[in-house]
Amino acid sequence: AKIYHRAAYCYFTREMGVEIRERVRMMHALRTAFEDERLFVVYQPQIDMRNGKPFGAEALLRWRTEDGDLISPDKFIPIAEYSGLIVSIGEWVLRTACYELDKILKSGIKEFRISVNVSQAQFTHPLFLQVIERVLADTKIPPECLELEITESMAMADLEVLTLTLGKIKSKGVRISIDDFGTGFSSLSHLQKLNVDKLKIDRAFINEITSGTNEGSITKMIIQLAQSLHLEVIAEGVENLEQANYLLQFGCYQAQGFLYAKPQNKVDFHAWLHDHQ
Ligand code: C2E
Ligand code: CA
Ligand code: CA
Ligand code: CA
């Protein structure tokens, strides 16, 4: 029994060591990739399902390794957050997306919006407001064309700090959307106090929406909640017409998903946009 115990102990620590080493390796690789400009932003159109026209896009980060492989943001964003790198990477994404929006608006497309994901570490950073001001001043985009996506779990953190920061951002004219809505546990009174503009229904619900399970009722409830609070609502991960029709039937008109378009690099995205006017 003693030998077994020791063996188990050794196995456990070695596994832990491997995991930490892997994380540190990824962290260095990510920093180098950022410095070597191997990170890039792709854009996924957002559609008004009533007329099929795009009205905006979400900026999504990509990492291409030196070998040419793509690493999923679900893998590297947590490392960027853990290491603090997300503050400078996030600022770069914001700036890149706003420059892209400026190009779109200058190319004759009117009233287009760009949504940018913002991590908690960015949002609570003391210089975040200045970053936004500087990016708006440099790119000269209309502030109401910029939308920041914060997650519902972030919206649950320190309410006082959050309300203060949100208020300052909103006073600049920038819009706020709550991402992954339905997966966290924000209370209704909380939501009302936060004064956000939009709810984004998580893909997990849309996935199961027509299967007759709870996801459908949760989606309906979120749509109704948005309507009664006078918020916009968008569905993420719409992949088929059944889902689109379900959403339309219950009054959700905005969608983002593979049914309409996948995230695209900026060149393809510009071409796509001009083809879909
Ligand atoms: P998210 O913010 O919830 O973004 C939506 C994800 O759903 C994207 O994955 C998008 O490609 C995917 N998606 C959209 N429509 C469909 C669909 O119809 N079917 C399926 N299967 N997937 C769909 P992606 O690009 O891999 O990003 C994953 C997550 O990484 C994002 O989830 C977001 O949390 C994070 N992320 C991406 N870029 C950034 C960034 O610049 N900053 C921060 N902080 N997080 C980011
Ligand atoms: Ca998002
Ligand atoms: Ca989501
Ligand atoms: Ca997310």
UniProtKB/TrEMBL annotation:
Domain of life: Bacteria
Residues of the full protein shown: 473 to 749 of 749
Protein name: EAL domain-containing protein
Record's keyword terms, sorted: Phosphoprotein
Limits of the EAL domain: 23-277
